[in-house]
Amino acid sequence: MQLRDIAHSRTGDKGDHSNISVIAYDPADYDFLRRHVTAEKVRAHFAGIVKGHVERFELPGLGALNFLMFNALGGGVTRSLALDAHGKCLASALLALELPDRQAD
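That's the AtuA-like ferredoxin-fold domain-containing protein sequence above. Prediction below.
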């Protein structure tokens, strides 16, 4: 199962850092997301892109996790040679993260 099957996402940026929120479609899936979408897994998923560390913030009232990825945008909007200098497509890329089947959890 991919993350996109149970959640959607939003992204933002500030300088060279990208911010991605993962929001459960169903609040009942929030604990599953908490267990399986860790800062370490997000960092590994973006291994060639994120040069710094990843911090995770939990927003249980919204059924969401927020990830702050440091040094992820090739220097930032005005310096990056990346086609997606703002990192907007990173949210879509994160939704391809493979998760275990919920029945096996």
